[in-house]
Amino acid sequence: DLIVGEEDGIQYYERQANKSLVLQTGSRNPFRGILRHGHARPKVVDWDGDGHLDLIVGDSSGGVYYYQRELNQSLTLKTDSDNPFRGISATDPEHSFKSTPCSRPEAVDWDGDGDLDLILAGDLIAIRYFERLDNNTLVELTGSNNPFQGIDISGSDPVAVDWDGDGDLDLLLGDKSGQIFYYNRQADHSLLLKSGSESPFDGLLLNSRSTTLEVADWDGDGDLDLLTGDKSGAISLFERQAVPQLSIRTGVENPFDDTAMDVMSSSPEVVDWDGDGYKDLLLGSEAGAIHFYQGQASGELLLKIGQDSPFRNISFAFSSPKAVDWDGDGDLDLILGGFDGTLQYYEHLDNQSLALKEGLENPFYDLDVGSFSSPEVVDWDKDGDLDVFLGGSYGRVSYYERQENRSLMLKDVYSSSFSRIPYSRVRPSVVDWDGDGDLDLLVGETDGTFSYYERQPHNNLTLLRGDKSPFNRMVVGTWASPKVVDWDDHSDLDLVIGTASEGLAFVTTSCTASYICHVRHGFCSTSSAMCSCLLGHSLADCSGCGSGSARRGTLTSTGSCMSCPGLTDDGRTCNGRGQCMDDEIAKTMALEEGASATSVMIARGNASCRCNEHFTGKDCSLGECPAGTEQLADRESRTFACQQCPPGRAKPDAGVHPCRDCSHGLIADRQGMAACVTCPTGLYQPLLGKFFCDSCLEGSVPAASGDTCDSCPAGKFASLGFAACKECEVGRVAGTGQSKCTACPKGKVARRGSSVCDLCDADQVSNSDQSACILCPGARSTFPLFRPSHTQEECLLDYAYISCPVFIFFACVMIACLIPLMFLPAHIEDIRSSDHLSSKKGGGLIITTFLAHHIFSHSVRQVCFKKTSVNWLDSPGPGNEVFLVKVLSPHCLLLCDSEGQPCKSRSGGTEASRGFIRLIRPKSICAASFIGVPVAAWISGLLIIVVVVIALDQIDVLAVLGLFAISLPASAVFHYLRWQYASRNLPFRRQLRKYSDWIKKENPKPKPCKPGPNRAVTIGQLQDFYHHFRQFISSRDMYYVCPNLVLPLTKRSKLSFAELVGDGAVEYFVSHFWGTGFENFIRSLRKHSKCKHGKEDLNWRDSRYWICTFSNNQWKLDEEIPKNGSMKDSSFYQALHSSSCKATCMILDEKAMPLTRSWCLYEIIQTLGIDAKNKNNFEGLTFLTSSGVLNYGMCSVDLALKIGEKLSCASVAADKVSIDLEVHTNHGGFDKVDQELRRRMLKVFHSVENNFAVELSNLRSGQAVK
């Protein structure tokens, strides 16, 4: 949009979409209320940094006014303290005028510190500058601090803008005369007035007395345009055009400055001829030779001559080369114009040679332009093949179009686009110069000028004349021969131009450096696109003074650089002994002092010397360094300064000479020492220039000179830091040069100061301090137990001597322990019929021992038994049968008869869990074994070894006998402990002890009672008994239970089992066969008790039964069955006939064995007698089985039918006689008893039959329901 200040206010023109401007009035004009300012000069900037544009207005009153933009977009005039420009006007503070000048403000960040500063001009003052500080206040900088000092253009209107695009602000001023002054800001922040052709506004004269300026990219093309206003109210727009400026480079800016200076009538061609990626130069000449300059990676051109030049054999007067792939084979061919006006053609062969084609083989054989032919080859008509332009001496360019048959056709003068080119000796070059996509024509003329023809849309060529031609007013010698190419790789077109005698000219556009190089201080390098500054100048545009110099004058003057005095050959100022106060140092100091951004920007040095300490004079040439210091270069300041002598060096007096190294034996242990000092005691220094003394190596001490070390002699030592060697103590020695004395090995001794240890005698060792040798204890006795070690360090037990007695003692102990194995019995853990064991062990009885039985396993051995409770095993003496055993394992034996056949079970009890077994003497000597080897073999082997050891070591036999005597008690203790262990840890005995302890808790004080009915036991007591010994009882019978369990349990108290566990009155008398399995026995009683009480009634455990094994005192059987008394005196009779006895329970198995025993028959007779008397509550004879009570039908019919009919012998002959007599005397004989028993059994069978019928009926009823 456009904001215009007028005499009566500010107008606002809004830019429309069609780019037109529409004046906004009334409420549409945001500046409608601003009417107080005459000749208003508005500036729109974001002064307060809130993101909204504010308004700054200068006017004819000379003041500066600030309108802040509010959030509602309205403008509010700030006054008094709210106005940042209060007190600022365009009047000169030192003068007064009758007329009031107009103020023209400009708000920009001139010093680059991130905030806006104020530039103020007026009609009657020079430009004033106000720097904005961090607290947002404005401070005017005057005098030399004003960056615009010296610019005094009356009535100027300032605009600060980066016109040249180098990144800093330049200054544009319009004055009353209509001129525009352009001050280009340099890299050193100075302002350089550009005039003449250097000014982009040169020749732009505005016809007005008062010019106001504004710069903006009005057309949106990316560059700045100029808007001007005048007193008449007219506003002019000057659109900026992007027109590259061609510049002829000379001297170092010309890359061909020293190339082909002696080549006359040069005609250049630039092409990568050798295909290495670098541009090569082919240069035709008047003499006809083709000069070949090969391009290098560095950008230089290297002339190739002789065999290195591919054009060495080519010569054509006034040659004009053109390199192009004419035949389309992928390599470059050579087309050569020359003096005779024809063209030569050289084909590039595969072997890289050039072959001249003549006659019809030359595609250009019929072309002739008279003289001085100069070819240009390009696809002009865009048909995919190459056409030819040919310049010559007739002042015209001929155009030959290539046809489909590859011939060349000359376009006639009327149809040719070039028919109106009336020049002589022209050299054409075709290129798209204006970048519009089609080819244009550039023609070099004889007079060194250039004609430029621009191609039009209809292929017409229009000659551009005057300023329309980019080559206007460009002249390069004579006979200009142009070649257009991007030589410097800057993506723009350059010109390499051959001339008649001035060598090669190089023309390019303006330097692309970010700054325009200062014309007197540097030049633009085309190879680097950077400014190359002359000596004494610096910065990107060479505007600054180099290190060691300062600028004269102000920022707006062009004063030269002043160098500091005392310049040395290596480029140092102040004789290298001080700091030059140049511009760089001045800026650094201002920055360190916290100066404002503008002050730092304009800071300048004064080219004086600030001498380092100890140096004086204008150029710091006077003065010298004092003692302890020397003149050295300081890395930070890069000047010479007096620095302290480093450690290891000293300087005794003042002068310019350097510090010197300390000599041998002396040091300088700190900086700045004037003299070196000697080493402390115990240290030395063998080298020059050291700041510390070294300790001598261990084993040596400093020599008197202090510069070397002497080794300690033998017998003395020295550690680090020792000043003198010390003697070794007693018992220690040292060789030459030792750091410490080493202790003599045990067995050796040494005197004080000795170097060698003395060896002790063979039977001696050294004492603790190595001062004397001592004998080992008993070393010279008859039986020495100690001897010196092989190094004689200590006395050691003589294990070789001791090991023999130890071994002999061990052998004696072994023999003493093995001998009893041949005679001592083994504890029997179990005797069991093989029917209950694995079949692989064979038939018969298996004997298991608790510990190993030590019987040799390779034969059958004769043995005897003791305390097994099996009568036929325990009966010793002559006439008894012989028992043999066969070894099954270390713990198992098979009992065999005298013929070696396995023994079978016998009636009256066979199995046991107690007793002992041993070999029959003296056969046991050969039958005993240990670890599978006969004991006799062990003893024999050990005795042989003992004898051999005695013989070899010459040990006294009496000593050996003494060892054997000592081993006998050890053997006795061992076997005693072994016997006790086996006795206590037999599983059977452990269980007996456990059950005995349990009984003591249940019945701690058992009381004896008379034999008879009061010794009954409960079924619960029997059940507990069975559960305690189930693993031992298993399927065994009463023949096992009585001797193996009942007798051991009652041995101590000598009571009956019933008395031991707690007796009571009998309820049921039990008649049974001892051979019945105990498990079936208990199960039968449990079935009976539960039938009487019911299964759910726990009182069934309290039913008491009188059982001979448990109710009789097995230790006093004579009292239970008197030998001389009547049967009525026996405990059986008394229990059966007691008033509390309810029935006789006979336990039957499937063999009905009780009916074959005399005692059972007696009990049946007594029961029948009691039953005949009709005793109250007496149930009579009840038959029990493991499946139930037979009398109640709770038994199978098969079992009932197996009741025997015939009595057998009683267990004891004396008992049978008494019972037979009782039957015949009181009961009418066996026949009568048998008839009664059959009658009773028949009644039982009827009960079984009835019970069976009931169960069968129930079964049928259940099937019917289903």
Automatic annotation (TrEMBL):
Keywords: Membrane, Signal, Transmembrane, Transmembrane helix. The chain crosses the membrane at residues 799-824, 925-951, 957-977. The keyword Translocase does not apply. InterPro entries: FG-GAP (IPR013517), Growth_fac_rcpt_cys_sf (IPR009030), Integrin_alpha_N (IPR028994). It comes from the Eukaryota. This is EGF-like domain-containing protein.
